Input
Amino acid sequence: MCTCRVKYDFCRATGPARRLRDVIHMKLETITDNHMHIDPASGVGVEAAKRFKRAGGTCMFLVNKMSKDWGVTVTKAGDFTAIFEGTVELGQMIAEETGLAVFPVVGVHPAELVYLCARFGTVRALEISTGAVDIASGFVESGLAAALGEIGRPHYPVEPDVFEASNKLLEHALCVAKDLGCAIQLHTESASEKLFDDLSKMVKNTGIKPDKIVKHFSGPDTAMVQKRGIMPSVLSSTENIAAALKHNTGFLMESDYIDDNRRPGAVMGPKTVPRVTKKLVETGVLSLEDAARIHCDNIEKTYGLELH
Output
């Protein structure tokens, strides 16, 4: 079990009806956002990470944005190197300026593959993308990145050959993650039995441990994900997390913050995960032990990390 539990500072209560937050000044040692994007060019950049920290956040998984966001024109697999290097360097800068623990996640977004298919056709696009995943694996193997991702299938309709290319890229990435022994964050369509049947087949084909697969952008019905052995990462509205807790604490929390000035606060703002966590603790929906399990124990087990 994780040793990074909680610290308490007690103050004097004036009566039994006093609210929990007025009686106990609670500080969770670890509050983790499992999926964030930071964009110094088109967003608020490092300031978003500072807002996350001021709200109580301590750890963040920094997922690379797409080539268009980095101003990179992709014509070959090697062009992704600049994107992965930029994400790692950005993570290092955030850590230095804020003191946050920052864990880069690198890979080829499904929308990137769709874009490449439109430019080059599915065969060449898949060749480029699988090569890029192999390059990303080097960042994980060297310790510069914590996981592969976000990789998977588009959440919107595409042509059958493009969808099949997405499946091939995903299965290749799962195989790479298995060989590395690392976690992989998935971007897919909404949870369904069909999706998880497909993933189960890929798990069997590749030999990856399902608990190394993280279903990014999960909803509150975590049971559907968990019964396949996969770790859900729940989009962290108060309602979603409260509903997920009715099942168990076997999930992660994320904001999927995009950091795009054209969509301020999308998908959720950088303060969301710490604010929701604290609110649910204060209202008694989430215990301090369970909060530590979600933000620390589950993270350490899934990613093979030691947060403290």
In short: The beta strands are 6-10, 24-28, 32-36, 59-63, 101-106, 147-152, 183-187, 213-218, 231-235, 252-254.
